[in-house]
Amino acid sequence: MSLYELLIGPFVDFGFMRRALAGCLALSLGATPVGVFLLLRRMSLMGDAMSHAILPGAALGYLAFGLSLGAMTIGGIVAGLVVVFAAGLVTRASILKEDASLAAFYLLSLAAGVMIVSLRGRNLDLLHVLFGSVLALDNNSLLLIASITTVTLLGLALLFRPLVLECFDPAFLRAVSRLSPVAHYGFLVLVVLNLVSGFHALGTLMAVGIMILPAAAGRLWARNLPMMLLLASAFALGSSVVGLLVSYHADVPAGPAIVLMCGLVYFASLLAAPGGLLAGRLPARKHLES
Amino acid sequence: MQPFAPPVIRFDNLTLGYERHPAVHHLSAAIPAGALVAVVGPNGAGKSTLLKGVAGELRPIGGHIHLPDLPRGGIAYMPQRSEMDHSFPVSVFDMVAMGLWRELGPFGGVSRAQRERVGHALEAVGMSGFEARPIGSLSGGQLQRARFARLVLQDAPIILLDEPFAAIDTRTVEDLVHLILHWHVEGRTILTVVHDFEQVRSHFPTCLLLARELVAFGPTAQVMTDVMLARARHLSEAFDENAPECSVEEAA
């Protein structure tokens, strides 16, 4: 097998591979930067929680309109936003911290989702929601993912400075500006949008993988935020390409292959990066003068 | 301090507290414009609570805090325990430059002139050359200097400092006191929680001695007397779970 057949052929010969690649490119540019901020806000696991929260919305859309892209997307976004804002309100108004209130709402949401799914009886189609179908992205799904990425990049550009401050010194942001809640909720909206865009490609269970894993790997290498964003997106895209190729050649599901590749990058970074496991255990290089 | 300057901050029978338990109890005092006030008192006396109240982070449960009309950011507040996430990948320059928020807003770029001002602020706290360092790599004292540099750029008429000298070496304290005295000369109103009586006596012209209730407020020499300090120590600092409702008149 030539190098061309190994690396390029699948994308040239098959439209579905090209669509998958385009979808992954969009996710790497949109969802991964959002994941970087999730990681820096110490909300990595909350991304996971929220991905479950969108399930009942998608399931309701499915129940009412069948396997319709629009209905499931809107349902997912609405359910995600309801959970996020309800949890946010509870956090700001009660003594419960964000993780506790979010956990309460997402568990309820997940239970409602499973209940709704089981009402329909025949759940096979819904595997699409849980595990995605990156190799079966149609034009509309692709357009949706690309649109969400566009909105995300614009939103992050607008929110960038308040969001960075909200992450590393929220008290200061509250003191100098009214934008603290704007940054907080604006960011959560972006998280929900990207989880929905991610579930079309990778499924609700694995959408968070392409957000958090490249971000964590990037954090291990980068000393500043722009570099971290750049590295994370590059890692995500690289993992996507390799994951798609592995899936093609080895005939395994694409979504898990992509996320596993992200995991490989993460473990490699964990070993090699200056912020990783080995850095502190290697024999020390001669120290500097000052 | 001008003797007839109008008060900028007036506490009017102010009670601040948590879950109905007062931490600052029926405090009435007027802080003149441009005063440099040391807020002194034993642990649990309500010093930090008072600053939080002025900063607007805590709503009074009785009485009022009268503040002059200031734009947002007109009160610079440096809390004792910073909420800052030191592991965040941001450089000293970027952290300090955010003191310019009132000028930059969420979108404005940092001009060459503003860059120079950030440089001057870092110079004023003895942190030149640290611009590119991540904040996570700073020592406690260096971080405190950087926070002061950000305060310099905030350029606020009212400055609240909650124990700015806790766990800081003498030289750093000297530099930071120098900066505070400079702000005082510039006419800013400054409230600082300080524990070291020597520092209070040598640098702060005005003192507010607090032990939940106001013990004394005025020129330092008249406040920091053995009698007053003994009275402050004597006042209980514990919350009584079953305390009866306070019977002091709320009406000012």
Care to describe what's here?
The complex is a heterodimer of chains A (290) and B (252). Chain A has 290 residues and is mainly α. Chain A has a single domain, classed as ABC transporter involved in vitamin B12 uptake, BtuC (Orthogonal Bundle). Chain A has 13 helices and no strands. The radius of gyration of chain A is 20 Å and the shape is globular. The mean pLDDT of chain A is 87. Chain B has 252 residues and is an alpha/beta fold. Chain B folds into 2 domains: 1-70 and 159-252, P-loop containing nucleotide triphosphate hydrolases (Rossmann fold); 85-156, no CATH class. Chain B is built from 9 helices and 9 strands. Chain B has helices at residues 47-55, 92-97, 101-104, 112-124, 140-154, 170-185, 197-203, 220-223, 226-234, and strands at residues 7-18, 21-32, 36-40, 62-66, 75-78, 158-162, 189-193, 206-211, 213-219. In chain B, the strands form 2 sheets. A 6-stranded mixed β-sheet of chain B has the order 5-6-7-3-8-9, with helices on both faces. In chain B, α4 packs across α5. The radius of gyration of chain B is 19 Å and the shape is globular. The relative contact order of chain B is 0.19. Chains A and B meet through α8 and α9 of A and β5 and α3 of B.
The total number of structural domains of chain B is: 2
**Strand and helix order of chain A:** HHHHHHHHHHHHH
List the quaternary state of the chains. heterodimer
User: Given the C-alpha coordinates, what overall shape of chain B results?
Assistant: globular
Largest interface: A-B, 25 and 27 residues
Number-wise, the strands of chain B total 9
Summing up helix and strand content along with how strands pair, one would put the structural category of chain B as alpha/beta
